[in-house]
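Hi C.,

You asked whether I'd gotten around to modeling the 184-residue construct. I have! Everything is below, sequence then structure, no commentary in between.
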Amino acid sequence: MSFPVLETKRLKLIEITQHHVDSLFEIFSLEEVTRFYGSERFTLPAEAVKLIDMFQKNYQDKRGIRWGIKLKENQKIIGTLGLNGLQLKNKRAEIGYELHPSYWRYGYVSEALQEVLSFSFEKLDLYRIGAVVFPENEPSLKLLEKFGFAKEGLLRGYIQQDGEVHDTYTLSLLKPEWEESQLD
C-alpha cells in the first residue's frame, strides 16, 4: 500500500523519509517541543534518523501512520502528526503531534488534525481515536476538546521523562461523535 498523502488548504501531509532528518532534528531538539512529548529532547541527528526509521517500520507493520506536516508555500516540514498504536482489527489508534514553536498558534495542527481524523474515520474505518496528554499541556487539551475529544480519566504515573514521573489525561473521540460533529 502506498503511503497516503493528504492535503489541506495550506498543508501537505507526506511520508517522513531520511530526507527530513535535519527538519526533525531541529524540531525535536527544542525543549519546548519535547516538554510534553514523553521523551527527552534530541541532542544528535542520529536520534532523528532512528525516529524516522521507527515511523517507517510502524507504517510497514500497519501499527502506525506518521505524516510530516509540510507548508505548501515554502515546502518546509514544520512538524509531524499521526496515529500511534494503530490496531485495524480493533478499529482504534492514538493521535499524536508536535510542531516547531515558530508555527504555533496559526491553526496548522487544527488543519492537519481535521484531515487526519477524516482519513482515520472514513478511509481506515476506525471507531476510536485516543490521546494521552500531560495535564499541564493546556493548548493540546483545548485543541482536542475543540474536536470533540472527551476526557476519560487521569493515568497516574503514566510517563517517565527526564527522570521524573508524570500523570497524563486520556481522551478519546468515537466515530459516531465525529460524524455528528461534521453535520454542524
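If it helps when you're writing up: The CA atoms of residues 35 and 53 lie 22 Å apart.

Thanks,
B.
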